[in-house]
Amino acid sequence: METKTLILIALFCLAGTTAFAAVKPTSNYIKSSCATVTYPALCEQSLTPFAKTIKRSPSQLARTALAVSFKQSQSTQAYLNKLKRFKGLKPRERSAIGDCLEEVSDSLDRVSKSINELKTCDRVKGQEFTWHMSNVQTWVSSALTDENTCMDGFGGRAMEGRIKTSVRAQITSVAHVTSNALALVNSFAQKKH
């Protein structure tokens, strides 16, 4: 019985080492790619779980980064929708949240378009690649602007407080992953071009 247990443990250890060895180069690829973005730790943290999908593909890395941005935007949109229904809001806060919600919805739409357009970039070359990639870069950049514009309605001393702090945390989080996605999209565009 003891021998069988030791053999099983050895097999699990070997399998774990093999799996680790397969993921490690991919994780190194993600780490080195994330070193070039504005928020490298967040980049690594958000993309490493997808290492097996990304492998060493700049295109897949960019697509995955956009998918992370999209998911974060959806989460922020859901949060803002719940917050807007909160009974204790001041009219100005409710209005600012509504405006912010509109900006996040626009951002979601642009990131979604970018994900689809990036798929096309894998199948084309030359001027056609440049045109499609330009669309992706413009939309992701606009999405980032939308996210940053969201906080404009919360300006001034009257808006200070828990609601503003809470919304800022959500928007900052989505803006950081979108900024990273834009950097990885730009990196892919340079490598392919």
Report the CATH C-level class.
Mainly Alpha
Structural class by SSE content: mainly alpha
How many whole angstroms does the radius of gyration measure? 21 Å
Would you identify the regions where 5 or more consecutive residues have pLDDT less than 50?
A: 5-23
CATH superfamily: Invertase/pectin methylesterase inhibitor family protein
Name the helicity range: over 70%
GO molecular function, one term: pectinesterase inhibitor activity
Keywords: Signal
Domain Pectinesterase inhibitor: 25-184
Organism: Lactuca sativa
Model description:
- Mean pLDDT is 86; it is low at 5-23.
- The protein has a single domain (2-192), classed as Butyryl-CoA Dehydrogenase, subunit A, domain 3.
- It is elongated, with a radius of gyration of 21 Å.
- It has 193 residues and is mainly alpha-helical.
- It has helices at 2-34, 40-47, 51-54, 58-84, 91-121, 126-149, 162-192.
- The termini are far apart.
What key phrases describe this protein's structure?
single chain, mainly alpha, pectinesterase inhibitor activity, elongated, 82% helix, PME_Inhibitor, Butyryl-CoA Dehydrogenase, subunit A, domain 3, 7 helices, 193 residues
Summarize the structure.
One of its GO terms (molecular function) is enzyme inhibitor activity. The protein has a single domain, classed as Up-down Bundle (Butyryl-CoA Dehydrogenase, subunit A, domain 3). The model is unreliable at 5-23 (pLDDT under 50).
